Amino acid sequence: xxxISITLLVPFLIVSVxxxxxxxxxxxxxxAEKRNSASAFxxxxxxxxxxxxxxxxxxxxxxxxxxxxxxxxxxxYRQGLSLxxxxxxxxALVAFKESLKLRPDDVQANLSLGxxxxxxxxxxxxxxxxxxxxxxxxxxxxxxxRLGMASQVLGKRNQAIDEYKRLQExxxxxxxxxxxxxxxxxxxxxxxxxxxxxxxxxSKPESPLSAAAGPTEPTSTPSPSEKTALTEIYRVGVGxxxxxxxxxxxxxxxxLFTVMAGGFIDVPVAGGAMVVAGLTPDEIQSxxxxxxxxxxxxxxxxxxxxxxxxxxxxxxxTGLVGNPGIRFLRRESVPLYVVLAEAxxxxxxxxxxxxxxxxxxxxxxxxxxxxxxxxxSGDVITLTGRPQEFYFIGGRINYAGQRPFQAGITLLQAILxxxxxxxxxxxxxxxxEGANGLLVTTKFSIKAIKAxxxxxxxxxxxxxIEIIR
Length: 469
What we know:
The protein is an alpha+beta fold.
């Protein structure tokens, strides 16, 4: 019986042992994996460790809370404003750009980025930022104003005028300020105005201006003292070639700089691009010297700025001159005789017309004051002959009729030129058109004129002379 029992139990024992062995192997294998994982986690980089933990964590249906992009963008924007306020422009640019990465449609961030770029003289990049702001908000007066100012500095006058007209449509006081910038030849001051505080620009009401006509010309005429000052100074413009010498430098270098579109010159030793249009050579010299001192480039550095080639100020001379064409001015304004001397005035010229904007001034060259008339850049000067003028003499005269008029001719000279009077006629009447268009007649005694007791009157073109008894 015992043998049979053991025999019967053997199969059951074999099954139990075979089931226990895999379980033991599985537990050993799991323990090894845990030890290997712990060792790998301890020696892994933080990034790999994080990835390992993420895999080991059980999956959850809950999603992690997203970061608020608007809040982060606003944080960068405020940081940029603070940095720009204390003059850290490079850091401010980084902050504004980070803000725009998160919120590219932010109008104020685009404007602030443009203003900061303008302060660093990066006007082309600033222009693009202002364009984005205008595109995002068509009715933003600030965006149109700053875009117009940047366009004027870069020489894009048509675009600047378009922005001026848009400001008028918006009925913004900034239209008046942009209009002033369009008439301002000092591009350096215009460039400074790109980043101006708008609260200070809107203190004066806008004057009603015609949008079709565009920016208006100044209505006030310069005083004599202002005219004198304009004939003594020259404000640099686009195309002028400057001769800049660093006098106390070790190599006393001299370099020619051409004023580029937008009014810039590139002076690497003084920080690169510098707006000089609208400044006098003395002002440019002072600006470069101050920049060298600020950058501590060279101690006691002396700078000399001259003009090698004048290009930006010109007038056009046509008509009765020996050498017509464009004449370049070396001052803001010059007397007319300076231009005529270079253009070689012809003897048959009798009149000059000066076209300035939409107005034309006609002057007689026989008038000594004409040669001292002040001309300025942009004027068109045309020399013409004096049109033939006449006076008429009749009555009791030997040779009555029409006679050529010459300035300065007198009554007695006209009588003699007509062959004298018949018999002893002693009176003459001169009829002349009055202010109201009606003839005004004055009687003269020929005898008194000959005796020297009465002045011999000078004739005017168109006078009618009649000799009477």
